[in-house]
Protein 1
Amino acid sequence: MNTIKKILTFIFEPLRAFANRNIAEKTSTFFNKNKWMIYVVSFLITLAVLVITYVLEISWR
Amino acid sequence: MLFGIPIWKIIVDAYFVWVLVVFLVKFLLSNKRMLSIASSFILVYVLALIANYFDLLISAKALAYLAEWLPILMIVIMAPDIRRSLEFVWKADSRNENVVMGSERTKQAIVDAAMYLSSQSIGALMTIEKHNTLDQYAERAIMMNSEVSKEVLINIFTPNTPLHDGAVIIRGDSILCAGAYFVLSDNQNFEKTTGSRHRAGLGISEITDSLTIIVSEETGNVSIAVEGIMLKINDRDKLMEYINMFMK
């Protein structure tokens, strides 16, 4: 029983620690403080999409 | 020609994609709940990709099915948030770039008003804006743009007056609006008998980084709601301490 508990803790603890870090709130606050970053991040995502579509020629469907 | 496609086509395509991505990012960042849901979406999609890549028979099918239905589930569950976030995307933020929190005088006026309303058992809901804009709620309320003072706040919440129902939104040193309505929290950890004023205060604290002061009409208790947590504070100094911490 203890071993199962240890294994389950080993699996779930990193996920729980990740969830407890309040990343959504920190991200939202960061982008609200630095509004211009929205445009920079959007540009980077666009660049990634363009590379995937035109250079790597990976189909979206 | 670039990659066998005319350059102008790639530029126009890039521009359209960029506009779409800006809207999508703004939409997701408009409130915390939306961002949390989006991150769980990304997790499901990444897991589905991994399962597909390694050809995991059952999980690949299950995750593909989940990924297909998640957008529909999101629309059903998050309908009110989606509506408000979509409105937010199209509107310019009316605030200045830099967030300015209230002065000492404003803090004092808020605490004085809360304590007076508590002593008279007059229900009140005062939300102090921080980084997340509350414009989307203010637009539906009665705009005031007046200086924060104890007297004005007491007057707003006096029963049987047109503005007493709903919340006051405070931005910096001014009362932005009165009679604002928020999405109620459906947090199951609170008693089922928790009133709609408290649920509204809790609801706005779950999706924005604001602080809400709630005065109960029944008991006169003063509570604050911040980051989805509600604390009962009947001590004047303690309330001041929390407001000082929040408004620094």
Note: The mean pLDDT of chain A is 79.
Protein 2
Amino acid sequence: MLENTFASGSSPVHGLNPKIRILVSLFLSIAAALCDNLIIALGYLFVSFCLAGLAHLTVKQVIKRLKPLFWFLVMIWIFLPLTFRGEIVFEYWIFMATWPGILLSAKITLKSIAILLIFSALIATMPIASLGSGLHRLKVPDKMVFLLLMTYRYIAVIQSEYTRLLRAAKFRGFKPGTNLHSYKTYAFLAGMLFVRASLRARRVYQAMLCRGFKEKFHTLDLYPPTILNFIFFGVMTLIGTGLVLAEWIWIQ
Amino acid sequence: MSTEQPCIIKLENISFSYPGSRIKVLDDLSLEIKKGDKIGMMAPNGSGKTTLLHTIMGLCAPEKGNIAVFGNPMQSEKDFSSIRSRIGLLFQDSDDQLFCPTVLDDVAFGPLNLGYSRQQTIDISREVLKNLGIEELEKSVTHQLSGGQKRLVALSAVLAMSPEVLLLDEPTAGLDTNFKQKLIQILNELDISYFVISHEFDFLNSVTDRIFSMEKGKILTDDEIHIHRHEHVHKHGKHPHVHK
């Protein structure tokens, strides 16, 4: 269910320190999210394409990853141009598409693709354990890091428990429909899932105690501090700051 | 054989019942595991075998009775936390035990908690994986492994802490004959004491010296019971028949 298709690779990005990758992706994505200029947004998109190229992501995989986003964007392109007030570009019957609406949709499209590409190139290219250790080194509280790692580890277990329960129900002739019996069955399934998840959480914690866990999390990952890290960090910070400044000057 | 050996785990008159239940899962139970002991336990479902192991590890607090591990009385959580790394408990469900993203991370979890350095931990973990013949799984993602692989990885994770005694909770449950053979081989090559719970007589017979049972919250040692198997011939041939 959770595939780390991008995590195994040997591109220059894969060798970079997770801490630096997290910092750069956070900085670039926040800057891109706050950007309010179409040309600058294009700049961020260009940077994200470069990063994706640098991480050797294949077009096919990237499109597969972005598919859910495309559906969201289709919704935006349908609703925003028609509901925004402003200069009308074209009208048909009662539908009127406005210029500000189209502009906003375009900005959202560029920015969201850019942000997802940045994350695909920098974050999705590391195994979850490295992400955990990177966050740990960035002084993110241990509890949060644990929550992330445990979610990753157990979501598949919980899903398989759910499918097992659902299969058991189906084998006994359960056909989902819009009736009280179906709702009740799903409520039982959900309830049972919570019960099992909490029991499992207890057993996992016990297993951790048995192996000397003392509320402190250690990791094995080691990314040698190469000069590439500094160059990457420097160049990306410069580009990001440059784009922010360019937009600032534009507004002035 | 084991009478002159020091006692690793000693339970005296332990009673335990789950909250809200009046049934005593462990009732005035006593048990001694000595150095060099290879004990099997075969008992019906629900007879309290898992609870017994969890009580030894301090995961269930008994209502009464004394627990001594390596000669030290166990009273508080602090006492137990100091001995947990010296007893290796293999859980019934390996998914409970393997919580790290990759196999190496998981095997390394124990040694890292014990304070070994990164390189020492990696060396220990690789050594254990190699000994169990699963070194090629090192980078695998734990939740994508097969049931047998998960069990072996969980066992490696336990062995990586170099425990002085192993407690194995149904290690063969749900696994095929090949895996059982492999486990028999692994256990027979180990030179530490262990206590194995299983429903499979053949398996227990090949890895242990003594087989105990449990009934009504008490342990029946091999002086009191003798579990054995009879080979017999049927005059009914292949036709279905009922045993009396």
Note: DSSP finds eight helices and ten strands in chain B.
